[in-house]
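CHAIN AND CONFORMATION:
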Amino acid sequence: MNTETSISVTRTIDAPAKDIFEVLTLPARHHEFDGSGTVRAADDTERITKSGEKFVMNMNGEHMGGDYRTHNFVTAYDENKMIGWQPAPEGEDGSAPEGPLGWEWLYTLEAVDANTTDVTLTYSWDKVTDQELLKKVSFPLFSSEQLEESLNLLAAAVTNA
């Protein structure tokens, strides 16, 4: 039985932390650095400015039986240092979920110098407590290779900002 509940990958990006954070906090750009191929577009184009906010994404998910939307609850926000969110699929009737289901995407930025930043992406499912969901979904849904590709794409997105 797999007892791990998270995957983390780190990459050094040749850009200041503030430039990387600018890309990460704009949901309209999230499809540019999605290494899993599931993010299609954001419904929300406003910049994330604090924990507790929510943004909606349109997703392409064979693992979910086709296209769907997620409501992403911002769980971590420390300007130029950290941004994280927990998604929850929208109800079949289009209703918003009451709250996240327990998996989280967390980006941590650590400045190496003025123009270089170590970025760590952590995909965690340690807060998933719904036993039915745990039976239905085989975590992890995404691999470390997909997370590494996300960081590669993030580096390119920052360069093209």
Observations:
- Residues 60 and 67 are 5 Å apart (CA to CA).
- DSSP finds three helices and seven strands in the chain.
